[in-house]
Amino acid sequence: MNRIKYTLLLALALVLFGTGCASKSSTENKTADSGQTTEDENRGDAPEGMPPPPGGDGEMAFGGSQDGRPGPPPGGFGGTPPEGSPGGQPPEGMPPGAPPGGGSMEVDHGSYAYLISEDLSGGSYESTGDMENVLRIEGEEVLLEDLVITKSGGQAGAGESSNFYGSNAAVLALNGADVIINDSRIITSVRGGNGIFSYGEGTEVEVNRAYIRTTGNSSGGVMVTGGGTMTVNDSDIETRGGSSAALRTDRGGGTLIVDGGTYTANGNGSPAVYSTADITVKNAVLKAGGSEAVVVEGKNSVSLYDCTVSGNMIKDNVENLQNVMIYQSMSGDAETGQSHFTMEGGSLSSGVGDMFYVTNTDCTITLKSVDLELSNSVVLKVSGNDARNGWGQVGANGGNCDMLTKDQVLKGDIIVDEISSLELSLTEGSVFTGTINSGDQGGTVDLAMDAGSRWVLTGDSYIDSLRGQAGSIETGAYTLYVNGTRFE
Q: What is the Cα–Cα distance from 384 to 371, expressed in whole angstroms?
């Protein structure tokens, strides 16, 4: 009898315990789901036309309660790498060790506070929701003028939806939208809080005289992905977070054209320009305070005309420091192929590291009449890497670079390691003063020179072939070896 009574009591306790667990689980699921408003629910909240904007002017300078110093991001989101990986953040791509293709994440644009279908002029708009845009434009043609747009709260969510699809951006245009934004202020202080985001083929965004400030990690000033297009004119953009390029692109790329203005990135791993797209910038000032000035990933391009460009890469425990990096990350964010960096006129200055670094990719570098200001003796390094960031396999991840100079003064040393190659062409009166593989590194180097260009050696140098005028090479007290034979 006692045994039966004990068994009944035990069964009753298990039922009650299981009910309690189920209730707790249901509550957690409801809480987790509460921040994921569906698109239909959002459409229901926004009546036809435009609801009145919330109060307040959305002002947030780099001071006060938001001092511009973003705290550490949650694990797994572009911030502090896992134990054993190099210090700092990888440039803009996936974290070290991420699988090629970035996993199987579905397209997720999140929700929005305001769905815009008509022109707007004046007013302040704000969002504090998780994975929520302040303004979203889906397939509409609209003009937005004199707005203050503030993204002051809201989590970016798991995965890469904010980087790839704009889920936490202040302004997101998609589905073939045609948007013009004039004379507006955009302020974000959240992780994944990109300022203006253009997503998808057929989407076009024009930005004129914008003032954009972002402080969170992974929060670019303007962002293009998925084949979108954006033009930016005479704007003032500054970012403070890590992995937050002022001019930023990510998976699927697109086209970004900039004319005039100042574009500054202050965070670690935050270049002024990060390209997984085709980016052209004219007559602008581009500054990076804690990173390379420019990064080009994969089969993409950056073209700069009459720009003032500077970088200052700050990282510990990295294999190389550089000012312009051209590489293939293997994350799947950029198609593999020939990268292009073109610069004509203006200046390019390095606060630290090599001027150009090419690794794990094929690229073309074209320079014409650019004022180069080096921080060390290396103007170009083409080499493999130790694969700590997943950039190819050790021994097979060198670079192949074609460098073409036109009316260019080039000073410094060129290094090409044994698994890399360089084709250097000095044309239109270019003058190169420096060395090539002074330590006989063993990489393949082919040099071509036209009649008006010169090479002045500053040390012994080793190349594999030479096409051009013998009188254009001034060896002085040093020796040039061509395919192992002393050049006379």
A: 28
* Separation between Cα atoms, residue 41 and residue 157, nearest integer Å: 19
Helices (H) and strands (E) counted in the chain, each on its own, are 3, 41
Q: What is the pLDDT of residues 208-236, one digit of tens each?
A: 999 999 999 999 999 999 999 999 999 99
Helix, strand, coil shares, percent, the chain, to 5: 10, 40, 50
In a domain, 72, yes or no: no
Distance CA 389, CA 382 (A): 17
Q: Quote the CA–CA distance of 42 and 423 in Å, as a whole number.
A: 56
| 52 in any annotated domain | no
Residue with tokens 């997503």: 199
Rounded to the nearest 10°, the torsion over CA 404, 406, 411, 415 is 0
Across 356-380, average pLDDT: 98
Instruction: Tell me the two tokens of residue 144.
Output: 């937005």
CA distance 347 to 372: 6
How far is the C-alpha of 293 from the C-alpha of 413, rounded, in Å?
20
- State yes or no: pLDDT of 374 exceeds 50: yes
Q: Is residue 129 part of a domain?
A: no
